[in-house]
Amino acid sequence: MSTRSVMVGAACAAVLVACASPPKALPPANLGLPTTATVHPLATTTVYTSPDGGIYENPDPLSIIMVARAPGSSLSSLLPGDSAVITQLSPLGDFTFVGLRISNHGQAGSDEQLNVAQIASDFAPPETASGALRQYYHPMFALALLGQQSSDSSCAVRIDPGQSDVVVLVYPPIDATASIVWGVYSVFALRTPLGGALPQGVASWQATPCVPPEAPPS
Fold it and tell me: Measured between alpha carbons, how far is 140 from 4 in angstroms, rounded to an integer?
């Protein structure tokens, strides 16, 4: 794991509420995110899901295809119930968008729960080390999932065998950096540069708020 390790702590006391409002759709251009005809991975790994509690595991290749920053103004229309949180974080700068392509190379359906994926807290703005904003950065879980279909509070992505999907995780604004460390605590960590783009052809994105996972037993 990188020296900028992905750390986990107690779950946030105040989180985005998944049932705040029905999901709304927004064209990709309205979010200000880059798109391209040919997607090139920035970093890759393979994650494993199991439909039967661990007896059989699906190998699911995962690629980070975009790490970008964009204003949170459009997020308010996608997540009207959480506009107060977006407003609270906006003075820290543009929000962080991590685009993923996940494929299912197994024999059963995969449910990738992405609310456990973090950006290392090393990249948090210094002013969030204490105070009201600390809950969004230590640890730094995703605020929302953007996908072509709505999800649930765990920001799970359902992928059938032989299929793939592209989704975007939305994180708070981070400190100025040329790269991030992103991953799942004690499972994997990927260092990836800012850059990349989403594939063209997505008609609209729907947003689902993510609820951080419960803290592991001490």
Answer: 13
Do the strands 164-171 and 95-103 form a parallel or antiparallel pair, or are they unpaired?
Answer: antiparallel
80-91 per-position pLDDT tens digit: 778 899 999 999
Contact 215, 36 (CB under 8 A): no
Phi, psi of 205 (to 5 degrees): -110, 145
Global pTM reads 0.86
Q: Please report, for residues 3, 74, 207, 216, the alpha-carbon distance to residue 71 in angstroms, rounded to integers and kept in the order given.
A: 29, 7, 15, 33
Per-residue pLDDT at 8: 36
47-54: long-range pairs with CB below 8 Å, 24+: 47/102, 47/112, 47/184, 47/187, 47/188, 49/106, 49/110, 49/111, 49/112, 51/108, 51/109
DSSP H/E element including 89: helix 83-89
List the domain boundaries for the chain: 25-209
- Residues 144, 193, 164, 205, CA torsion sign: positive
Under a CB-based contact definition with an 8 Å cutoff, are residues 141 and 212 in contact?
yes
User: Tokens representing 112?
Assistant: 């990738």
Strand 198-199 and strand 35-36: pairing? parallel
Q: Which two tokens stand for residue 86?
A: 């977006």
Cβ contact 183:6 at 8 Å: yes
